[in-house]
């Protein structure tokens, strides 16, 4: 695989240093840029046209790339040209008007309330009594209590930190019973923490320093959750530990961190029936995303309409 042009490398560096993109996202974008270049080996980036971008999407779709992968690739190309166009003197962004094929929206699987309680209350397992178990319990309680994305969970700091070369973007506010999160698009929101999450987090904080090794850097010193090697915990470790707990608890389904986010949304909506509040807590820019995420169905909407609208005028069936 040929090296990326200097401009593309500089853009990826900009995303890492200035936008704090995760290494996972940066690596995906790097592969997407390689795909574009490989599709037009004789065309320089500054000479790419909208027709070239459309042709590349069509070729990749024909090769079996799924709509979500194509949408991400387009996001990478669009982002690169939006950043680079002013520097390179380009008249326009060749990827700006191109759209990926529409992907079917699949609903994530939510746990039932009983399954969520079985997972977190651990009725058939000993109470968490090791630092790793205390950390895991705090992580999973926060995921379910606040509906965070996995990336948001691992980005949390145990308090606000500002020092040379480092400043927190998301942090725990335990005295206020909430967390402040910078989510997708750099948007900041504050999400409440439940009592179970607060109690589990306090227990973890009592033993957290046992995970610090040597002379940790600023990111490690600030991180709320640490791995056993003494660095900020990775998404993969969270996934593995949650899957392990679900298996030990005897749940009949595999549990992903996103399942807890979806369960949070579904259970909140079932209790409060406040779509806007759930949208705010999840950090969704568009309420239509929340509607799908929380599995609103017409039966529920019709029931709300019948009860709330003064001129619904529809009789209930006997």
Number of separate helices: 14
- Radius of gyration equals 23 Å
Q: Distance N terminus to C terminus?
A: 69 Å
- CATH level-4 homologous superfamily of the largest domain: Intergrase catalytic core
Spatial strand arrangement across the major sheet: 3-4-5
Biggest β-sheet strands, sense, barrel? 3 strands, antiparallel
Named CATH architecture of the largest domain: Orthogonal Bundle
Specify the CATH class of the largest domain.
Answer: Mainly Alpha
The class by helix and strand makeup works out as mainly alpha
What value does the average pLDDT take?
A: 84
Proportion in helices: 40-55%
What is the strand content?
5-15%
Any idea how many domains? 2
**Low-pLDDT residue intervals, each spanning 5 or more residues:** 296-302, 314-318
Shape: globular
CATH structural fold name of the largest domain:
hpI Integrase, Chain A
* E-strand count: 5
The helix/strand order is: HHHHHHHEEEEEHHHHHHH
Question: Care to describe what's here?
Answer:
It is a single chain. With about 325 residues, the chain is mainly alpha-helical. It has two domains: about 5-90, Tyrosine recombinase, N-terminal domain (DNA polymerase, domain 1, Orthogonal Bundle), CATH 1.10.150.130; about 115-295, Intergrase catalytic core (hpI Integrase, Chain A, Orthogonal Bundle), CATH 1.10.443.10. It has helices at about 5-20, 25-40, 50-60, 65-90, 115-120, 130-145, 150-155, 195-205, 220, 235-250, 255-270, 275-280, 285-295, 300-310, and strands at about 160-165, 165, 170-175, 180, 190. Helix 1 runs antiparallel to helix 2 (about 25-40), helix 6 (about 130-145) packs across helix 11 and helix 12 packs across helix 13. Residues about 295-300 and about 315-318 have low confidence and may be disordered.
């Amino acid at each position: 695989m040929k090296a990326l042009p200097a401009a593309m490398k500089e853009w990826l560096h900009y995303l890492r240093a200035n936008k704090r993109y995760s290494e996972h996202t940066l690596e995906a974008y790097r592969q997407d840029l390689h795909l574009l270049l490989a599709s037009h080996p004789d065309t320089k980036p500054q000479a790419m046209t909208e027709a070239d971008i459309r042709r590349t999407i069509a070729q990749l779709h024909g090769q079996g790339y799924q709509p979500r992968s194509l949408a991400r690739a387009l996001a990478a190309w669009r982002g690169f040209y939006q950043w680079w166009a002013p520097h390179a003197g380009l008249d326009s962004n060749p990827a700006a008007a191109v759209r990926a094929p529409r992907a079917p929206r699949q609903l994530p699987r939510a746990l039932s309330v009983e399954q969520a309680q079985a997972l977190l209350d651990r009725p058939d397992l000993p109470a968490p009594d090791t630092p790793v178990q205390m950390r895991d319990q705090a992580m999973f309680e926060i995921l379910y209590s606040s509906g965070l994305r996995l990336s948001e969970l691992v980005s949390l700091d145990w308090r606000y930190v500002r020092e040379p070369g480092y400043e927190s973007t998301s942090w725990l506010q335990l005295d206020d019973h909430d967390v402040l999160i910078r989510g997708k698009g750099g948007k900041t929101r504050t999400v409440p923490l439940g009592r179970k999450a607060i109690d589990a987090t306090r227990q973890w904080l009592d033993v957290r320093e046992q995970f610090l090794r040597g002379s940790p850097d600023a990111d490690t010193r600030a991180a709320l959750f640490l791995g056993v090697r003494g660095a900020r915990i990775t998404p993969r470790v969270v996934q593995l530990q949650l899957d392990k707990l679900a298996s030990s608890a005897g749940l009949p389904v595999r549990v992903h961190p996103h399942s807890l986010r979806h369960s949070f949304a579904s259970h909140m909506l079932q209790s409060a029936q406040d779509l806007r509040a759930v949208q705010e807590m999840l950090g969704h820019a568009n309420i239509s995303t929340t509607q799908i995420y929380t599995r609103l169905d017409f039966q529920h909407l019709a029931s709300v309409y019948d009860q709330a609208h003064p001129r619904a005028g529809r009789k209930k069936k006997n």
